Recover the amino acids of this structure.
């Protein structure tokens, strides 16, 4: 646990009692603060009470009197589409509003660091797609290099649930736009921007607000090094804002598909090979084609981001390459479930929008595609350029019929359920094909989250393969 600094003896309101909210309450208590806890959900309040925390109804008049700060969970709106009523009241009263990420950055460094040979460092990863894989890959590389390392944030442990730092430790955080948007302190040593595609637009009031939330990770604290994906306009703009010119190697530009030369420092992947260029010459190359945990161009972009971050922290190219080989990938992200009679079964349930599904569709040549769920704005219209690899689509969930209308001449079948979709795809798949779950939609029509959807796919595939 990271005890929170700066609120000793103060009353601090905590709104939202999920994983991050309860961790915040514990960390505030450990730092000597008096947390006042509330959640609109009776079930969440019961969990807090079961842990021994008293509750304070923050909706009551005067409940925020003499409160030093309000700490809110990431999922609770604080600006768009409209702030939660408790947050709105805090803003009217001039009470600072923060989140657990802001508390982490103000509390992580301690006096003990003066005795360390090597100060701990924080790598923070944000972006639309690939940030979980990139975060896990950096953490894996550090562990393989025998460096002390922890991983948290939007993946693994909550930021305040992490352990106090060791000498020379590398802490790797995945941060979503919900987390970067509000944090009052954002001071990573290395910050990574993978890419940007439309997502969470209702929460951020459009693409401009969404990009602004991501940009705060780089603009607020000024990291020593910034790793920026430049395959979209926003990434190129961000890299240009942060650098003093093309030779400024404080910014490492990365790409999947573009050759980046003439820059101070760049890392890019083309035709399955990663290349590192510094000061006008190539200094390293890695063959990514046979690495099973990183299939497809989108994972090659993740590899470039992780490679660049680790190189900026002093790791050698050969060591990073060796760690790539042992990376197994993450569950629900281009996860190989099994293979039978020349047919591969891949779970990419995390592909919850068209952009991430498009990347999955480009990773395999002949695809039996399971898609659908709670479709997002635009559906799968943006996937038309990538449908040439689809042998047949098997559509499930709320948006199955809407997706069918957007598929045009692509063979498809409305299956409604995962059970039927998997059964039909397994029955029809031929050697050399891949049965791919890449929904291009949220899961909430049939599942509580994308993990449960992926687990359902895995269970049904394994049952059919072993039956």
């Amino acid at each position: 646990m990271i005890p929170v600094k700066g609120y000793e003896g103060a009353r601090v309101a905590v709104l939202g009692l999920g994983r991050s909210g309860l961790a915040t309450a514990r960390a505030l208590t450990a730092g000597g603060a008096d947390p006042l806890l509330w959640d609109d959900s009776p079930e969440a309040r019961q969990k807090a009470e079961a842990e021994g925390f008293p509750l304070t109804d923050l909706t009551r008049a005067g409940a925020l009197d003499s409160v030093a700060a309000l700490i809110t969970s990431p999922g609770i709106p604080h600006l768009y589409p409209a702030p939660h009523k408790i947050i709105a009241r805090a803003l009217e009263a001039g009470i600072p509003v923060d989140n657990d990420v802001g508390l982490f950055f103000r509390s992580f460094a301690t006096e003990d660091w003066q005795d360390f040979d090597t100060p701990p460092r924080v790598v923070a990863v944000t972006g639309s797609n690939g940030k979980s894989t990139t975060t896990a890959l950096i953490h894996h590389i550090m562990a393989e290099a025998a460096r002390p390392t922890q991983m948290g944030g939007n993946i693994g442990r909550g930021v305040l649930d992490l352990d106090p730092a060791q000498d020379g430790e590398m802490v790797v955080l995945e941060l979503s736009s919900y987390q970067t948007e509000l944090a009052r302190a954002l001071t990573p040593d290395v910050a990574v921007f993978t890419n940007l595609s439309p997502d969470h637009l209702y929460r951020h009031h459009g693409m401009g607000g969404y990009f602004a939330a991501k940009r705060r990770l780089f603009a607020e604290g000024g990291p020593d090094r910034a790793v920026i994906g430049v395959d979209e306009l926003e990434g190129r703009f961000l890299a240009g804002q942060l650098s003093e010119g093309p030779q400024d190697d404080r910014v490492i530009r990365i790409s999947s598909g573009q050759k980046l030369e003439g820059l101070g420092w760049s890392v890019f992947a083309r035709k399955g090979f990663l290349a590192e260029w510094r000061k006008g010459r190539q200094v390293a190359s890695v063959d990514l084609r046979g690495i099973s945990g990183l299939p497809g161009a989108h994972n090659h972009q993740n590899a470039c981001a992780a490679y660049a971050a680790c190189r900026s922290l002093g790791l050698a190219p050969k060591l990073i390459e060796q760690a790539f080989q042992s990376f197994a990938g993450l569950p629900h992200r281009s996860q190989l479930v099994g293979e039978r009679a020349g047919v591969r079964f891949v779970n990419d349930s995390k592909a919850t929008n068209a952009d991430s599904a498009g990347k999955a569709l480009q990773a395999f040549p002949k695809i039996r595609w399971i898609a659908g769920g709670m479709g997002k704005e635009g559906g799968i219209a943006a996937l038309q350029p990538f449908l040439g690899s689809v042998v047949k689509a098997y559509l499930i969930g709320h948006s199955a019929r809407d997706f069918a209308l957007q598929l045009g001449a692509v063979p498809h079948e409305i299956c409604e359920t995962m059970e039927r979709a998997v059964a039909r795809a397994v029955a029809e798949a031929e050697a050399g094909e891949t049965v791919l779950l890449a929904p291009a939609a949220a899961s909430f029509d049939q599942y509580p989250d994308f993990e449960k959807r992926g687990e359902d796919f895995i269970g049904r595939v394994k049952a059919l393969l072993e039956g």
Remarks:
- The longest helix spans residues 296-312.
- The mean pLDDT is 95.
